[in-house]
Specification:
Helix content of chain B: 40-55%
Largest sheet of chain B: 11 strands, mixed
Strand content of chain B: 15-25%
Order of helices and strands of chain B: HEHEHEHEEEHHEHEHEEHHEHH
Strand content of chain A: under 5%
Distance between the termini of chain A: 36 Å
CATH class of the largest domain in chain A: Mainly Alpha
CATH architecture of the largest domain in chain A: Orthogonal Bundle
CATH class of the largest domain in chain B: Alpha Beta
Shape of chain A: globular
Number of helices of chain A: 26
CATH architecture of the largest domain in chain B: 3-Layer(aba) Sandwich
CATH superfamily of the largest domain in chain B: Periplasmic binding protein-like II
Number of helices of chain B: 12
Radius of gyration of chain A: 24 Å
CATH superfamily of the largest domain in chain A: MetI-like
Number of strands of chain B: 11
Oligomer: heterodimer
Number of strands of chain A: 2
CATH topology of the largest domain in chain A: MetI-like fold
Order of helices and strands of chain A: HHHHHHHHHHHHHHHEEHHHHHHHHHHH
Radius of gyration of chain B: 22 Å
Number of domains of chain B: 2
Helix content of chain A: over 70%
Chain lengths: 559, 326
């Protein structure tokens, strides 16, 4: 009997599979499907075939502002992805392949742009690089150069690239560090030049990782609302249109139609990614016993250090601005604050306990659900035990692509009344978070599982272990490192989630991101900065502690 | 294995979260709040002192975000009172709100109360120009709505996008009521539009741009913060924009909602409003904050919030065309 079919008949496997399918139907297909289908009916009409209309898409053909927003989204997304990649690749090579110190610190610092608190991050760019920003003034006074205006497309592309380049960096760094060193060494022994090795071996080997990182950046960039809304000025993109269709006109159908166009852009990017991956012909060897050799030449070490730290410095500029603001007692239109103190920190002390506890519990629970569901469904898809794997892939990717407020509205309308009522509970936030982030875990688990030879599992089965035991003792330990890296990113980025949270939170489950947003709403930027600084510091510490707990440092986690 | 214990504890936390998520206290009131934390905190403390035993749960957000919640929750409302959005937000969605004649009704001018008592005025604000005096001396600043269309102010004026900001919509509605779309078109050509009304006064205060259109209390707040700004009230007329509070229809705590609305309408609450937020109270018997000009010194005209609400979609489409044609 074929061991594969014997395993799929195992009752444990069937139960796990059934639970995963049920969860996907209730949590992903039902709310997201509803929210997607309203794009094809008039606003407020029932979802029924009789009401089918393409009216909501009409604006893309008749409205100049819609067309402009579409092209703006497309090219600013593409350009910021290109810029992010161009910035991230040298840094990934430097950290993975050159002997430079403080690699754990570099990894931790590189996560900072991803966890910067909502809204104040973009505002902080204005404080640094605006017409009257700190850096702008310093450059004008001491170097005599005028920076281009941060408002409009230039600022949007720049801020998006600086905000999301870590995704490319983390993924590619992991691939570079985890690749099999023997191939490159063999090439060197045979007399190939360093450049030739990079061109013919290193780059092809990491190309799928580069493409995966670029895809994340592109999805994030074309879905971002905060940056274009603060730096864009009149530069409208699809997410700003969605925001004002929902919160300005309460036209969910129009918003959903725009979101569908956003999804179409992403599908095009996914298709490109699949093409790149198909050309990937080289075998991935597993169980490499040692890391790649690192360059130790002085020249290489100087450029690697200089480049890495310069990029990190620019990337954390907003955080530095927030730090200044958090200590500013007085800042009356001068270059720097005129008086510093701790009063904003004291005044936010009361917000530190309950909201932070809530954020940790909600984000932690959501991350756990993501890990369990993401790993199980990735296993099912990769081992090809279910029909229609493309459908699973699409169902999991769709909510990742949809802007957060669309997911928020979808959850609110699906679970406020009817057969399953979740509003007012913490679980609705947990599940919405899960919906938005499970793609991360699914993707990292898929690649981790893909690297495991099925023969290892078959060996376990032949030795008499049941499916559950094989999973627990053999498969899970092998995929944990890959999944753990993804889980940390999920957890860290959920702490700052705002666009779905603002629609779903209840007084009992007010998160710290909402507390920060409340300060922003009240115009209290200094207190928002103080609370944001505390949260960023706390998240960083948690990441470092978590990576210690599993006995490896940050640098090795993204292999 | 440490990883597993980490995952396990996260799972346990999740289960606990889901299990303990519900179970609200018996006596409570849920407030959907658009005003700043300082002001709302003062209200909550005041109300809980005046009505012991009733706990106030505050859900904060932008007025658009909270209205989205109220609309999505229509079949099973979660909120009781909606505090602080522009009155035309209520006017546009009257079905979502309940009529209730507040015990404080007599203290309000009928002009700031909905005719069926669906909302009561909260604060009233004049729209004005905030000027960064470091970038532009006050005597060089625009004095009137028509000045905004003059070539010397091209690129120097910041407005919020009326489709994305209630106060910006009321500014545009004022220009159209006083003049016409022709002037609005010229202002669109001259000005820069951002997505949030907060960015307008914050960016002017930070010295990013010289002039902005904003509510008067933002100018006063920036001034008191030590920023180099001053306010100019348009000489061709400005209107009081009323923001309001009302009861959400079918909310979970109807009786407490009425108590809370009565408190928000009380003289004590409006004195807190003036002291904390430096806004003009909508009550007839509460004096405006120091630093805001007396109404008699300004040229004013009445603002019809019902008309503003009914014309909103058409006006915004027209604005969208003007902006796209720029």
């Amino acid at each position: 009997m074929n061991p594969l079919s014997r395993r799929s008949a195992d009752p444990t496997a069937l139960l796990v599979g059934a639970v995963a399918v049920a969860a996907a139907l209730v949590l992903l297909v039902y709310p997201i499907g509803r929210a997607s289908l309203v794009a094809f009916v008039r606003n407020g009409a029932d979802i029924a075939f009789a009401n089918l209309t393409f009216l909501n898409f009409e604006r893309f053909f008749i409205s100049a502002s819609y067309q402009r927003a579409f092209w703006n989204s497309l090219w600013s997304g593409a350009l910021s992805t290109a810029l992010a990649t161009a910035l991230a690749l040298p840094m990934a090579y430097a950290v993975a392949r050159v002997a430079i110190p403080f690699r754990s610190l570099i990894m931790a610092m590189s996560v900072v742009p991803l966890i910067s608190p909502p809204f104040i991050g973009s505002y902080a760019w204005i404080m640094m690089l605006g017409n009257n920003g700190i850096i702008t003034q310093l450059l004008r006074a001491y170097v005599g150069i005028d920076l281009p205006s941060i408002y409009g497309p230039f600022g949007v592309v720049f801020a998006l690239a600086m905000g999301y380049f870590p995704y490319v960096f983390l993924v590619v760094q992991g691939a570079l560090a985890g690749g099999d060193p023997h191939v490159e060494e063999a090439a060197r022994v045979m007399g190939a030049s360093r450049w030739r090795i990079i061109r013919t071996i290193t780059i092809p080997a990491v190309l799928p990782s580069v493409a995966a990182g670029m895809l994340i950046v592109f999805i994030k960039a074309i879905g971002d609302f905060g940056v274009p809304s603060i730096l864009g000025g009149e530069f409208q993109v699809l997410p700003t249109l969605i925001y004002y269709q929902i919160h300005g006109f309460h036209n969910l159908s129009a918003a959903s139609a725009i979101a569908m166009v956003n999804v179409a852009l992403t599908l095009a990017a996914l298709w490109l990614l699949a093409r790149i991956n198909r050309r990937r012909a080289h075998a991935t060897l597993t169980g490499t016993s040692r890391a790649s050799a690192r360059l130790t030449g002085t020249g290489a070490r100087i450029w690697a250090n200089a480049y890495t730290w310069a990029l990190i410095f620019v990337a954390v500029l907003p955080q530095i601005a927030i730090l200044f603001a958090s200590f500013a007692e007085e800042w009356p239109g001068t270059l720097l604050p005129t008086r510093y103190g701790f009063s904003h920190y004291f005044s936010v002390a009361g917000y530190l306990t309950q909201p932070i506890y809530n954020s940790l519990v909600l984000s932690g629970a959501a991350t756990a659900v993501c890990v369990v569901f993401g790993a199980v469904s990735a296993y099912a898809v990769v081992r090809n035990k279910i029909v229609g794997r493309w459908a699973v892939d699409a169902i999991i990717m769709l909510p990742f692509v949809l802007p957060g407020l669309v997911v928020g509205v979808a959850y609110l309308t699906a679970f406020n009344d009817g057969w399953l009522v979740l509003t007012g509970t913490g679980s609705i936030i947990v599940l919405a978070y899960f919906t938005r982030r499970v793609a991360f875990i699914f993707r990292s688990a898929s690649s981790a599982i893909g690297r495991i030879d099925p023969k290892i599992e078959e060996a376990s089965t032949i030795c008499g272990a049941g499916w559950g035991t094989t999973m627990r003792r053999v498969t899970a330990p092998l995929i944990v490192p890959g999944v753990f890296a993804g889980a940390i990113l999920v957890f860290a980025t959920l702490i700052g989630e705002i666009s779905a949270t603002v629609l779903l939170y209840s007084a009992r489950w007010k998160t710290v991101s909402i507390s920060i947003y409340e300060f922003v709403l009240g115009g209290e930027l200094y207190r928002a900065s103080a609370l944001g600084t505390v949260v960023t510091a706390m998240t960083l510490v948690l990441i470092l502690v978590a990576s210690r707990l599993v006995g490896r440092n940050m640098a090795d986690m993204f292999k | 294995m440490k990883t597993r214990s980490f995952v396990n504890s996260a799972l346990v936390a999740g289960v606990v979260a889901i299990a303990t998520a519900t179970g609200p206290a018996n006596a409570q009131v849920v407030v959907y709040n658009t005003v700043g934390t300082k002001l709302m905190q003062a209200f909550v403390e005041g109300f809980e002192k005046a009505s012991p035993g009733i706990k106030v749960d505050v859900i904060s957000g932008g007025s658009g975000e909270l209205l989205t919640r109220i609309k999505a929750e229509k079949n099973r409302p979660q909120g009781d009172v909606f505090v602080g959005p522009d009155a035309d937000v209520f006017d546009a969605e009257l079905d979502l709100f309940d009529s209730y004649k507040s015990t404080e009704d007599a203290a309000f001018n009928p002009a700031v109360v909905h005719k069926d008592k669906k909302y009561y005025g909260f604060s009233m604000n004049f729209q004005a120009f905030i000027v960064n005096t470091k970038l532009m001396p006050l005597d060089k600043a625009p004095k009137s709505w028509t000045d905004l269309a003059k070539p010397e102010f091209k690129g120097k004026v910041l407005m919020a996008n009326p489709a994305q900001s209630g106060s910006a919509y009321s500014q545009m509605h004022q220009v159209i009521s006083l003049y016409n779309w022709d002037l609005m078109g010229k202002i669109v050509q001259n000005s820069t539009f951002v997505t949030s009304s907060r960015l307008v006064f914050q960016n002017v205060a930070k010295g990013e741009i010289a002039v902005g259109l904003t509510s008067e209390f933002n100018i006063l707040a920036m001034k008191l913060d030590g920023q180099p700004v001053d306010g100019v009230y348009p000489t061709d007329g400005t209107a009081l924009i009323v923001d309001a509070s009302g009861i959400i229809k079918g909310g979970p705590n109807a009786a407490n909602a009425r108590k809370f609305l009565d408190f928000i309408n009380s003289k004590a609450a409006h004195e807190i409003l003036v002291a904390v937020d430096k806004r003009r109270s909508a009550r007839s018997d509460v004096a405006p904050p120091q630093g805001l000009p007396a109404v008699a010194t300004l040229k004013t005209f009445p603002y019809d919030s019902a008309a503003a609400a009914s014309k909103r979609t058409g006006s915004l489409e027209r604005f969208d065309k003007l902006l796209a044609a720029k």
